[in-house]
Write a structure and sequence with these properties.
The protein is about 35% helix and about 25% strand. The protein is of the alpha/beta class and about 240 residues long. It has one domain: P-loop containing nucleotide triphosphate hydrolases (Rossmann fold), CATH 3.40.50. The strands form two sheets. The chain has a six-stranded mixed β-sheet, sandwiched between helices. Strand 7, helix 6 and strand 8 form a beta-alpha-beta unit. Helix 3 packs across helix 4 and helix 3 packs parallel to helix 5. Bound molecules: adenosine-5'-triphosphate and magnesium ion. Magnesium ion (MG) binds next to helix 1.
């Protein structure tokens, strides 16, 4: 579904933050992206969304990412950015959620039904007509996730989906993500969430892949995690 082939990227000449990266996500796979602050997780996601342009080749659903295919690829990939402030384009939660479904061909009635169902599923109906710029940080995050679900994409990128959420909403998001059948790439320091939601984990270190394997194996490797400023998930450190 998604493939990186020898991708490199530098924000400043000579300072590569993504280094000759190659990997492949199969259809329907659920992959956690972990690594220390500054390892390159958000940069990798922005490259895949065409928000940044680097060396090498990225393909999604067999389509090579370039200027003229960007719109087509964006339509297949829903995303929740690390800072959800940067991704709401419409004034209210409802308008924002309606935007993609209507743009991609649903009738207003169909889109409205979809949006209301997603709001109910995430227990967000009370936020429906609120202004995005007046939401709390966690509410914004929930609204951003809701907008992605309403879009029904083929793949979903989530950058720190649970950061800033209270424990109740964090659980709700974990349950929701587990129930999603789309291909998923989730960057997070919440390794318990990654363990709950992902079958495979890619560990980034200074823009390179330091490990790529079954979630239980990578997340159980204390030495590897500690070398990368991470710790065993709570649920594994007790056993
Ligand atoms: N706009 C920018 N200009 C220059 N350097 C940047 C920019 N954004 C990120 N970087 C640098 O690129 C590297 C990778 O950053 P990135 O945001 O991808 O890390 P991350 O793995 O998402 O970290 P975090 O866990 O803190 O979210 C870091 O060294 C960071 O300082
Ligand atoms: Mg980041």
């Amino acid at each position: 579904m998604i493939e990186f082939s020898h991708v490199s990227f530098a924000y400043e000449p000579g300072k590569e933050v993504i280094r000759d990266l190659s990997f492949r996500l199969e259809d329907g796979e659920s992959v956690g992206l972990i690594g220390a602050n500054g390892a390159g997780k958000s940069t990798l996601m922005k490259l895949l969304l065409g928000l940044l342009r680097g060396e090498g080749e990225i393909t999604a659903d067999g389509i090579r990412l370039e200027k003229k295919t960007l719109a087509e690829i964006r339509r297949k990939i829903g995303f929740v950015l690390q800072n959800s402030d940067n991704q709401m384009f419409m004034p209210t939660v409802y308008d924002d959620m309606m935007f993609a479904p209507m743009n991609y061909g649903m009738t207003r009635e169909e889109a409205e039904k979809k949006v209301d169902a997603v709001l109910a599923r995430l227990e967000l109906t009370a936020l429906r007509d609120r202004y995005n710029h007046k939401l709390s940080g966690g509410e914004k995050k929930m609204a951003a996730i809701a907008a992605v679900l309403a879009m029904e994409p083929e793949a979903v990128l989530m950058d720190e989906p649970t950061s800033g959420l209270d424990p109740y909403n964090r659980r709700l998001i974990i349950r929701t993500v587990r129930g999603m059948r789309e291909t998923k790439l989730i960057a997070s320091h919440d390794l318990d969430m990654i363990l709950d939601c992902c079958s495979r984990v890619i560990l980034l270190s200074e823009g390179r892949i330091a490990a790529d394997g079954r979630a239980e194996d990578v997340l159980r490797d204390r030495a590897l995690l500690e070398a990368n400023h991470l710790e065993l998930p709570l649920s594994l450190s007790r056993s």
